[in-house]
Write a structure and sequence with these properties.
By secondary structure, the chain is mainly beta. It is built from 5 helices and 23 strands. The protein has a 6-stranded antiparallel β-sheet with strand order 2-3-15-16-20-5, with helices on one face. Strands 8, 9, 10, 12, 13 and 14 form a 6-stranded antiparallel β-sheet that branches. It comes from Kangiella marina. This is GlyGly-CTERM sorting domain-containing protein.
Length: about 425
């Protein structure tokens, strides 16, 4: 039986939000406009709000939020001001370049693509000798969180599963997770785990994936399916679906836009553009950036707001960066965009950074909108500080953990190869 967990305070909800990662796949995006372009001096990405889920590992701890100190010393220069950009017009210009919208991927499509393009062997020697059952998903459980309006539908779920082997040996595995509404025929891919190690039938290697439903999931009963793979081979070694484990069935879910606490916000971020500048060492990581955003309001009166900016890496905890000046939002006007410019000096190693925008009512302090994975320009931005951005530096940039094709959080190919080599060495030593 799945467990239901309510969050009883605003603080608890804030903590869950602060650990939200972005290794999520993006759910089906119909009529969502996305664009990106690159030149020799500037890289730009612009997009409207997308339908997304957010996935994190449940054991990630919450880091410093606004007003809290951080153990990492970071130096930077920030400025904020009214922007002259018209994001609606710029988005139309991007559309004319025929950039493709990111699309949801079904399980059937992934299986077909894997069968047609994979150059990996289908199964390992152990699987060929003993059958694919040498690895299997022993059990799974689902925990549901966040029913703020008390309607019985939850906007966050955690899937725990335990992978075991029939043999006393170490194995490197990974899993793909899918979701669908009860009654639908197609499974939608929403997450691919990192490669992780299991040993025999030990229960201490259980894996957890926590997902927040952001948009695109109306109230209803949903179900989850897990495909298991042995790292380095293309065949599925096991599948756990709602027929095998009822814990994966009839999950009452809805996205966070349906979670109403009696106070509804009519002010929201509509468009976001991210520009990155200055890559002195030509390593693909930049030290300056500008984030431009258009906040709209359905209120008949103008609204004074300000925005808090946060950043994080590798699905970790959010770190507060800066607060904008107060500015005024005029209805649906596209001429009231605002921008934050940053120049990182030290304390920011080369990495792919995610940003988060928190829109605050300047008079009441109410949080009007809080966005990150809803806007692709806020995700996986290649940045570093000025100390690292030098010709004599020898950066070793990390692999991105986001795949635009699958929308999952699978490890980059070079990291997977490295993990495979390390795993092989480890197995030889342990034997």
């Amino acid at each position: 039986m799945f467990k239901l967990i309510n969050k009883y305070s605003v603080l608890a909800s804030a903590i869950m939000l602060s650990i939200s990662g972005v290794d999520a796949s993006q759910a089906e995006q119909k009529n969502i406009q996305v664009g990106a372009e690159t030149s020799a001096t500037i890289t730009t990405a612009i997009a409207k709000r997308a339908k997304t889920t957010t996935v994190v590992n449940d054991d990630i701890e919450t880091g410093s939020l606004k007003g809290q100190s951080s153990s990492v010393v970071r130096t930077n220069v920030y400025s904020s001001q009214q922007s002259s950009s018209n994001l609606e017009q710029e988005l139309k210009a991007f559309q004319s370049l025929d950039f493709k919208n990111q699309k949801n991927t079904t399980r059937a499509e992934m299986q077909k693509h894997r069968a047609e393009t994979s150059k990996l062997p289908k199964s390992s020697g152990k699987a060929q000798k003993n059958g694919l059952s040498h690895l299997y998903i022993h059990d799974a459980a689902v925990l549901l969180f966040d029913d703020n309006d008390g309607d019985g539908y939850y906007s966050q779920l955690r899937v725990d599963f335990d992978v075991d082997s029939s043999y006393a040996d170490y194995f490197d595995v990974y899993a793909e997770l899918f979701i669908r509404r009860v009654g639908d025929t197609q499974w939608t891919h929403y997450y691919t785990t990192d490669v992780f190690e299991i040993y025999y039938d030990y229960g201490s290697d259980e894996y957890s994936v926590t997902t927040r439903l952001n948009t695109g999931f109306p109230p209803g009963n949903y179900e989850v399916l897990i495909d298991l793979f042995e790292y380095g081979y293309s065949d599925t070694v096991d599948t756990l679906d709602p027929y095998d484990d009822y814990d994966l069935a009839n999950l009452p879910l809805e996205d966070k836009t349906y979670e109403s606490t009696g106070v509804t916000s009519d002010t929201y971020v509509d468009n976001v553009k991210t520009e990155i500048f200055t890559d002195s060492d030509d390593d693909g990581f930049y030290r300056e950036f500008t984030i431009t955003f258009d906040v709209d309001t359905e209120d008949t009166a103008d609204r004074d707001v300000y925005v808090n900016l946060y950043q994080r890496t590798d699905g970790g905890s959010w770190q507060f960066e800066t607060e904008t000046d107060v500015f005024t939002v005029y209805g649906y006007s596209s001429e009231d965009a605002f921008e934050i410019s940053g120049n990182w000096q030290s304390g920011y190693p080369a990495n792919y950074y995610d940003f988060r925008l928190e829109v605050i009512d300047a008079n009441s302090g109410e949080v009007l909108d809080d966005v990150s994975p809803e806007f692709s320009p806020l995700l996986q931005v290649p940045l570093e500080d000025a100390n690292s951005d030098t010709r004599d530096s020898s950066p070793n940039p990390p692999s991105s953990t986001t795949s635009s094709e699958s929308g999952g959080g699978s490890t980059g190919i070079f990291m997977l190869i490295l993990l495979g080599l390390l795993g092989a060495c480890r197995k030889i030593i342990k034997r």
